[in-house]
UniProtKB/TrEMBL annotation:
Pfam families: R3H. The keyword DNA repair does not apply. This is Sperm-associated antigen 7. Residues 136-146 have a biased composition (Basic and acidic residues). It comes from Drosophila lebanonensis (Fruit fly). Residues 40-107 form the R3H domain. The keyword Coiled coil applies. Residues 136-162 are annotated as: Disordered.
Length: 248
């Protein structure tokens, strides 16, 4: 114990926290708490603001409600309130640049053109709607025109392929090797063999139901078990018969 006491006594004591450090730590903690409380209060005010805007939106004739660019936390508040109110909320734009939320009434869900325009950063109004409708019409006309152009070419190619005839008579070419009759026999039109063995292939398809198949399997098992039992009984009776014969 004396050696241990001497070692402990020779070690430096931990540095004591002075009053100035304690005060600094306390101020930092209080500042963090004030910032957190301020953020909570700001989010509560923003939630109330969004609820009021959506309340007015639900009663007027507007088809959508657009918010200013916001961060992810504020957009999540908008989406939550919209979902609870029975609206459709979507976000458009680049993150940390101009990403914003747009709320729609369910009976006025955005069209494909509107979603595409907003994703492209073009916004949405009557002029843009007409522009995108014209683009879509031109695209459909181009696709239909391409189809009308490709179809005759494909038909022409198929007709040319059908008109192609071999330039060589293979029956005459190999007649000196396998004979005229064999060449004719080899060149005859081949057909699928409809029967394999003694049963036609069309009859090999199992037409039984699942229940009937299971019943047949169980019957086969019972028959096999019965045959095994009969064979075992015969083997058991044979030694007894031989033993009785020896005794006689």
């Amino acid at each position: 114990m004396d050696l241990l006491d001497s070692i402990l006594n020779s070690m430096d004591a931990p540095p004591a926290t002075n009053e100035q450090q304690k005060t600094l730590i306390k101020k930092q903690r209080e500042m963090m708490e004030r910032m957190q409380n301020k953020q909570k209060e700001e989010l509560l005010r923003f939630r109330k603001y969004v609820e009021e805007r959506m309340g007015r939106f639900s009663k007027d004739d507007r088809t959508y409600l657009e918010f200013q660019p916001l961060d992810k936390v504020h957009r999540s508040v908008i989406h939550e309130i919209a979902e609870n109110g029975g609206f459709i909320a979507m976000s458009f734009g680049r993150e940390d640049v101009d990403r914003h939320s747009v709320v729609y009434k369910k009976e006025h869900a955005p069209s494909e053109d509107e979603v595409t325009a907003r994703r492209n950063g073009d916004g949405w109004n009557e002029d843009i709607a007409k522009e995108y409708a014209e683009r879509r019409r031109e695209r459909l006309e181009t696709e239909q025109s391409n189809k009308r152009t490709v179809a005759p070419l494909a038909a022409e190619g198929a007709a040319e392929a059908a008109d192609v005839k071999p330039t060589t008579n293979y029956k005459a070419k190999y007649a000196h090797l396998i004979g005229e009759s064999a060449a004719l026999q080899a060149a005859r039109k081949t057909e699928t063999n409809q029967s394999y063995g003694f049963v036609p292939s069309k009859n090999k398809k199992d037409l039984r139901s699942i229940e009937q198949t299971l019943a047949d399997i169980q019957a086969k098992k019972r028959l096999k078990l019965q045959q095994q039992q009969e064979a075992l009984a015969v083997e058991t009776e044979q030694p007894q018969t031989e033993h009785c014969t020896e005794q006689q």
